[in-house]
Amino acid sequence: MSFTVHLFAGARELARAEMVTIDLPAGATVADVRTALARAKPILTRLLGRSAIALNHDFADDDHILAPGDELAVIPPVSGG
Amino acid sequence: MSFTVHLFAGARELARAEMVTIDLPAGATVADVRTALARAKPILTRLLGRSAIALNHDFADDDHILAPGDELAVIPPVSGG
Amino acid sequence: MVRLTHDPIDPGALLETVRSPHCGAVALFLGTVRDLTGEQVTVFLDYEAYPPMAEKKMAEIEVEARRRWEVGEVGLVHRLGRLSVGEVSVAVAVSAPHRAAAFDACRYAIDALKELVPIWKRENAPDGSGTWVHQSAKPGDR
Amino acid sequence: MVRLTHDPIDPGALLETVRSPHCGAVALFLGTVRDLTGEQVTVFLDYEAYPPMAEKKMAEIEVEARRRWEVGEVGLVHRLGRLSVGEVSVAVAVSAPHRAAAFDACRYAIDALKELVPIWKRENAPDGSGTWVHQSAKPGDR
Predict the structure, then answer these.
(1) Is residue C97 less than 8 Å (CB to CB) from chain D?
(2) Do chain B and A touch: 3 or more Cβ pairs under 8 angstroms?
(3) Buried-most residue among C49, D52, D56, D126 (CB within 10 A)?
């Protein structure tokens, strides 16, 4: 399955990209998204450790299993307000 | 000594007056103001029991001794805001 | 800044007077005239003050808020006279470098105002009757 | 009502949208751009959001505030894009029949927004350098 992962703020600047496409096998989890992202964009590795992964606009646990069409995003520590 | 006591809100309406003049001997206290007011305007007696007396724009204790020229007022329970 | 006024209160203007580039937070409280107090319908309120003492107590509340919290500017405005349902009777605005101080000082100021400042309201019902509200304990008694 | 906007926030207009004759209290919080963060001078900020998720999380905060307190209207607005020192970045307004609920719900909403809503700021210094602020713990982690 192919997924698009949206990047924002510091993650977007580090990766010099607003999104990254990753390929994952059926049954892959949010933890696999982290691994695939770090492989695709090694510069994100450190920030990923402090970031949440959003799945369909909600914070997702690492053991959550992906479904086709899921919208993924890296959510670094927020600083709105 | 002669003192003018300002009345507001319910006290003013009950007494049908914005101020009452009372005469007190030298050495009189705030407690004596209460007694003199109740004598001058008996209709205020009940509300006075729930009211503070202000002396020169501060809440005054009953044992405070008056000085000539002091500004007095009856302060019923407040309801601003 | 403390003020009594017979004119309508403009909350936006009050916010402008307390804002500052050194303060990242502003808290504002507005008290407005409710249409119902329990079961009782209110059509308008009359507010009366003992003005010199009210202004003195409001100034003391500002001093105490500044003593207890790190705040920038404090604005306390109370309206007097006849107010219709929905109008603003009181506004408290506080700016501060951080939001906890802005909230705490704002809440302290409105709580203290309602407890200590000699201002009274008369609730006027649709049948023309009116009652001065003197329900609480003696002012200054706690 | 929750909203993201690139236009300046008008706090007076937001207050009007939450006021109601049934609510005697309105609490408002404004976050504004400070000139200093610690020792660091800021000349402007850039705010970026993940808009659909930010709006969803803001709507959830409104729902939670309504569940926990008796409130009338809730307004949550966050500005995006480039902001100068002194401009309003976020505004939260809550009306309620009683002031404790207005204050508590307003404070909850800004605290939750700063913790959970995917919005980020970049602090831009006078020398032209800029840094995205990612200091706190993982969002959603508490």
Answers:
(1) yes
(2) no
(3) C49
